[in-house]
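Human: My hope is that you can spare some time for a protein that puzzles me. I am handing you a single protein, as its sequence and its fold in token form. Could you go through the record with me and say what the backbone is doing? Take your time, and here it is.
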Amino acid sequence: MHTDLVAALDIGGTKIAGALVAGDGGLLARAQRPTPARAEGGAVMAAVGEVLDELAASPEWPRAGAVGIGSAGPVDAKAGTVSPVNIPGWRDYPLVSGVREHVGGLPVTLVGDGVAMTAAEHWQGAARGRAGALCMVVSTGVGGGLVLGGRLHPGPTGNAGHIGHISVDLDGDPCPCGGRGCVERIASGPNIARRALEAGWRPAADGDTSAAAVAAAARDGDPVAAASFGRAARALAAGIAATATLVEIEIAVIGGGVANAGDVLFAPLREALDEFATLSFVRGLEVAPAQMGTDAGLVGAAAACWEQLGAGA
């Protein structure tokens, strides 16, 4: 099936964004609602419905032949359900059937938000034209997705490439996922800040204790702040090297709020990668910042949808 327009949804714990995405990646219409994250499941679905209704009011809507959804996870594309950690009212929630019903039976594709970001970066961003890539979102959590053999590789449930829950420290802190020493437990924004505070870093007069504030302090030469980013970089490098060793990727693309730290993150990351990626076939691995910005989820949900429909984006 070929369609030149896809309705895309990007669902997270803070907002539900929607857009009509054209075949060149342009966004023809947008809609957004805050996520009623503490409400029961039906109320969250009602907010999704409002976003879809607003898109349906666009004169371009009749051209939309399918819906692509990138959602906070875990997702189960096989079952069409989602259980986002930060939306407690949705546990094994039948999102795909709910959306399909709302849009009159159009085909619906569901992937995790890390896979959606990967689809966007491979279509139009830093991984464009690459046969093998790992793309990561490093923010409140750490997610990711894979491109293998030149195609998006979401896996049967839409979660493949979830690098945040690879263990890189066997004796590390317990992770809420049930594992220990996970990449996310060391490298996510809140964990970078937590570690810096525990090690004695103190915020500036404004009291800002975010990872961005830690990055600013590191840039100004604070050794404790720099050490927390250094440890996060090592965790990311270990996860990237393990992935590259398993599936042979050419590039690792890193986006999300923590990537905005720039060289505070990327310099120690490249250094650590040299240390971990020692085998000949992983040694030349490139690391690059993501290019798609805040629209990556929407553009990627559409790209994943086209790939699934076999139309090619």
